[in-house]
Fold these 3 entries.
Entry 1:
Amino acid sequence: MKLSRRDFFSIFLLMLALFFIFQFSLIMKDYGNNYDENEYVKDNRTKAADAFVPTQDDECVWIVADPEGGVYDAASQWCTYTKVAVRQFSEIPKPPTTDKVRAIILDPKTVDIKGKTDALYRLAEMGKPMIFANLPDADYVDSDDALKKLLGITELVKNSVHVNGIHMFKGFFLGGETIYKAQSEEEKKYEDIQLDIPWYSAGTGTKTYMVGLMDEGEADIYDFPKLLWRNYHKGTFVYAVNGDYCEGLMGIGFLDSMLYDVSDYYIYPVVNSNNVIMTDFPYLANENTEKLRSIYSRSVGALQRDIIWPGIVSMASKRDFNMTCFCSARYDFMNESESNNDLIFYLQQMKEIGAEAGKSIDFIGNISLAEKIDSDNEYYDSTGSQYKYRCMYTQKWDDSLPALLEEKNPEIRTIVCGDRDNSKALSFCGDNITLMYATNKASDYSFRNALLYKSLQTSLGYSNVLIDMKQVIWPETEEDEWQNCFNNIYSFMTSYWTDDTGFTNTTISQCDDRVRNMLAVKYAAERNEEGLALNIDNVDEAWFILRTHNSEIIGIDHGEFKKLEEDVYLIHAYRGLTRIGLDYSENVYYYDGPFDFGK
């Protein structure tokens, strides 16, 4: 078909118009991309000296445990975050005459309680919640009838039985009922929880929160081995934990949930922050090129730009998270590879998806940490970018790092660490620097890691999921190669490491602001006929979880609230008095015992 001049001219004008439309949109997009601005920087002046530390005259928790043990780790952190003083004992103490005790936590793994049941009964007579964070060996428990009575145990069915998984009932952790059980041979690789346990039966006056799962042919469902239960002994609630669930970070959520269980209401500060961090990305050094070309036929820059980044954008869109990317200016100081000039490109790309940029200071080579920081500073200065970096990542903690940053990078306000070594999950590590630890690794799903994730959501309203890109740039096995690594990351990030509780997705700088407030807040809460009076000081705003028993929030003054699930609310309160209206139904269970929160 022959085109007339008029038709040809019309088509030409249409194509020319489309060309200008697309070009104009790209120009405007580039013009509006203020990549050199870190929109998440906020001037929060809260420093380490402002962190609220209760005195020994305040209400305290007795921790009967070795300070080096996992139970003390969990209990002391829990006390820090809930603003309660700690008193540590290496043996069973005598009942106090002056201490205002909120709860007693015992660790029979590290403190010998054998033959000291009379002393335990004297503690029980205090009327305070009493938590056995684990139990002595089954033979001893079975031989001590008085101890079994205190714990509510009627029978040791077997010294050891293998269970198929665990079942936590609804109402204990946030997020509802939880079952961790391998449904196939492939899923058995996720079984890293304690599955060989003593099989105890508890009396009718006890309440069970978690059991081990068995085939129904082996036992009736009501007789499954108990992992966590509560007994009531003459005015005292006594908890028994059959396993290691109250050790380390995981234990914080268990302690919060147990204290909620015995109170009329339970309110405690949280961070309200879910983070996804991507370490060593973008990788700004032309390193390991030969290896990467043999796998991907690309250099590190082309691999990141053409293959990795599109996958990350797709995942971020589906998961809807605000990511923090920690750039690696140079890692391998054992060769002469130089850094590239891709930084501006990635700052533009990160800006488009709402991500924040930070610095990664991991390295190998015969140089010092100070020299590594100097080398990085020289690179970032050479790019001409004015981006304000406020967070830094390191895989392993170095005690010299805060002082070095005060000298060389005083603008850094947050250090994120990959490996936790009995340090608090959230703390100050310098006068104006917060320290946060990664809570889970994106590619490393297991039942225990999933339970940890849920525990921290319950206790802190916080997660910090790490996507480690160093293993992709420096692959050691086929599993480290991007096509395999991404399959796991994408699957787990969109299935397991998701926010199903309603907390806010943040970048690290946004989280830093909330962590400072959580560590510094001083608060008191009191229940009255109209509802709850919450008074906060030391900070301008803070977030709390309020857990009730069949009470609904009907209004709030000087704050906001969000219902997370039945009987669980996220409270955003401001400095001063926040009044929370509660509707008490007639069938609410009132606990009018010695545990009185917030006074």
Note: Residues 22-31, 586-599 have pLDDT under 50 and may be disordered.
Entry 2:
Amino acid sequence: MSYHQEYEKWLHSGVLTPEELAELTSIAGDEKEIESRFYGPLEFGTAGLRGTMKMGLHQMNIYVIRWATQGFAEVICAEGEEAKKKGVAICMDCRHNSDVFARAAAEVCAANGIHVRLFESLRPTPELSFAVREYGCQAGINVTASHNPKEYNGYKVYWADGAQLPPQHAAAIAQRLEKIDIFKDIKTMNYDDAVAQGLIEILGEETDRRFMANVLAMINDTESMAKVADTFSVVYTPFHGCGHKLVPEALRALGVKHLHCVPEQMVLDGSFPTVVSPNPENPEGFYLAIDLANKVGADFLLGTDPDSDRVGIMVRSADGEFIPVTGNQTGVLLADYLIGAMKRAGKLPANPVLLKTIVTTEMARKVAEANGVTCYDTFTGFKFMAEKKNALEAKGEGKVIFAYEESYGYMLGDYVRDKDAVTASLLITEMAAWYAAQGMTLYDALQELYKKYGWYGEKTHNLVMPGLDGLEKMAQLMKKLREEPPTQISGVDVVVRKDYADGTVIDCRSGETSAMELSGSNVLRFELADGTVILARPSGTEPKIKIYILTMGTDAASRDANIEKYSQWVATLQ
């Protein structure tokens, strides 16, 4: 079916509301807009769906939500009656339509005979992962677009272990969706009838209490906080989202006396009126937090994204100005701190393991191995970290104490299988208090870690390729890097090439080819003669290719010079 036929199908479906019909009628004659909305469905992958909220097949709207849920429901039902009884937990964030989409998903699941545990209102993403595990659900659904701009919404799907969907189940759903008509083949039922029949059960405060009991059990050290509590001051922002309740609760339970929440951003609002982008990776979003910190004399800022799975921090530097601490740096700080804190508390298990992704700083490996902790790489995405954690622990080959990726995501404990900004916020604050008790800020601590482990540096470049031709441009760039790989980058020889698509390793000097353990992901890795690593990876959720520079210098100046040198090469790719 052509995109124009699909457009006509929607116009004459007979199910659209007057407002929805008016939206589609308003684009009549705008071929480019019609094509962008109807050239094909949103691709269902291991991260589920994500797109802008408009009418259309390639958009996020209630019809696409029902269609996706019907496909997911059929995969659950294929597991048998027991899977339907175990059911699905459903959660949502603060975005516009998230509650509507979550209820629509619940109605479809109920109509397919699947028991639903639906959160009464917005909750952090890690609590959804927790609920799947805690209640023994077969699956989970979270309506969220994480840190994307306000125009977006998304649909994340989870399996029985509480991790996002494994590739084989995502593929099974995608295959079913090809056969499901978005209007004719959807089962749904009245919400109130589903509740009355016990097919939809509401989750609320009781689940919060169970989740928070697990979070607070992660505390290693309350004594340091008690020592500095009278002077230690924290500014926190949830960026209008799901961290507004449980993150402050966790910090107060740790013993934070002076917690200052940014009042303008404690307001739940899917429009995110105070920021251009509600992403803690973007330091400009912290401007209100910095203003508040300067008023109250705080040295430490904490911000969680709208679904509270990512956390970013800012600290005062030596000159007194607030600077962002990157996800790589925060992870290294946490890794070093947690190993020591767990040792001091007698909580470090035998055969401890740290997990990181292939695009995360090699400094994390140095920290782990220097402290007797094994470090493993995984592909980007916490479903892969969860898979590795489950496999290692099932075989008795190690106990994962910490898993993280450079994009501000951290997974701790055994009660979630996804990134968790609630627990991470707690332990980052515990760490800041421990250093404060020694007269150090986290900025001071980071400088000491560089002196101890080496002057590592990282930078991620986003080559954005929007529009209908964006995917084609992304594919062409990856193809060129494979077929015409650079022999030198910024004048430095490439000594090893790795292609994670098929797991091949090529020694550029000898020409010998070997195989590595990881394969099956569209990522290229170039290892240079000076120890620098450069990786190229198309984003799984946005129209861009990410280029990662992982380098090292003899001091801060040489490290920064390396980053600048290799960044100039990246600029030639677009």
Note: The longest helix spans residues 327-344.
Entry 3:
Amino acid sequence: MKAKIKSIICLALIVITVASLAACAGRAVPSGINDDGDFVYTIVRSSSATKNEEDAFKNLRTAMKKNFGFSINITKDAVVEDFDGNFEILIGNTNREESAKAREVLLNNRVNNSFDFIVKVIDDKICINAVSDEVIVTAVDWFIHTYCQNLESWSLLKSNYEFIYEHSVTAVSHSVAGRDLGTFTVVLPQKTSIMVGIATDEYVDYFTKMGYVIKEHDDVDKEEEYEILIGDTTRKESVNTKVEGDNYVIKVVGKKLVVKGGTHLATWRGVKALNEQLGKGETINFSDGYTLNGKYDANEKGTYTLNWYDEFEGSTIDFNKWSDYGNQAEKKPTDSALGGKIYNTNVYNDCMYKGSDMPAKLIYQSDGYIHLGTKRVNDVDFIGSAISTWWTMIYRYGAIDIFIDMAENPATASLWLNGANVGTKSFIERFGNLERPCMLEVDILENFGNDNMFASNIHRWWSDYYPDGTYKASGHSSTMTTDPQYQPGASNSKRLEYNTEKYGDNMTDGFHMISCYWDDKCMKFAFDGKVFCTYDYTDHVGTNVCALMDYFIASTNMGSPTYGPTYQKDEHKDFYETQIDYIRIYQTDAVNSQMLTAWPQKQSSGELKIKYPENPLGGSY
């Protein structure tokens, strides 16, 4: 979960700073050049600096070169070992001990410090630091305007100079067990619903806006003294707090605040109840033993309800929910890496491959799971598997949780939403005319055969429109992939990398929660309930396509020459399998949600059911 930090305007600080400089004692810091004609100070950045920080460093160097008349070097902290008399401008959390000292002074100044920054001179170092990377960028900009306009402004820096900027925030002091609640560490279960994760994000955002830096852990992290325990964590205070069904409880147990429900929705409602109390603007003061009981009510206005799900209990696949993937392009075999073909089998285990080595079933239900297999059936040919709601369910907006154990390398697992080919005759007979000149594809998970990484993506496809009012598919699209803010290494990256060192296993070694939240403003992707990427429609052109309805597909394959790792006969097994424990879709009437459910694929007719019939069906772009 990543809280957004608001930008602060630094130019207004100059007046404050100049006034503080007048009272600053000590000698001026060095301002000359060395024998090589370079400025005596070197700009030193952390090896883990973000791109925005790097741009700020370059702006600092450019300003000093322009206004001082000589060049200045930028280097990474790991490149040059420190020594006495090594004059440096340290920006951010470098490996120099002076950076840590400056940060410690900032942290000890006040607890709600996420928008604050410090400029401190320590011996031969000038330290610029902040709690957040975004504020470091602002601090550098302020430093440029304050000290780098000319050598006279530079001379204002003194040997014992220290300036802390405290951003003006409206803070309400809440306490639990006698301690400021804004200093508590939030702890979630290692694996939970995106509904719980999003409600927790709202809690974190509340305190972030007041300048607090909320630490967020899951229950495999080291225990802290003061924690807010959300959901069914392994902490003893959570384990010993009993709650069942739709009930939830908010309870202080020693130095822990427990928020727990009998279901994911009940826990979500419990966190919402806590957020509602905080949002009243009144100070809360919970002591040990404080207890508030409540209950999730599916009839509450604006609440989320479980509108579609499959727990995969029993030995028979529910064909009211699952069908063939009706996009005809998916039925054609493709070339394999071994010179043969890759075939697909559907939920009925129908397949174009008719060899004697065709397995009896690649898709089946048992032990509380649905199994999706992929197999090499001879020296060159492969079969993969896919299930879909193409014939049975299509929806818009909501949160989907998929609890899944992905097949390992070299098999590829995919979970996605799609809106292609909804204009076919068979589709229209079931759902009505949802034909449109564009479509939305949401790749909730593509692991590309990687055991410890997957990517999420959004593709917006559109067709060529002709003057006579017709249109034809063109293959034109826009995607998150082309936007730098979603690339690997960005703070909002669409790629999730599993922390094998922390968890002690591979991502494909067990079940994990893969989730997507979708409404009329954004999409959020989450792993084990923690949001790692948010796609905000307001940042993009042509966002109406994100209001179009989609169906769901899950698949497992291997053997492709281009998608995922290349299959090696002497290294890989003949068979791999994905298992799904459950799939749940939660929706609310608070946004323009919609869901259409039809009859089984092999049933000639039936009743079309419309969830939220008062909302427009959204067939238009």
Note: Residues 1-25 have pLDDT under 50 and may be disordered.
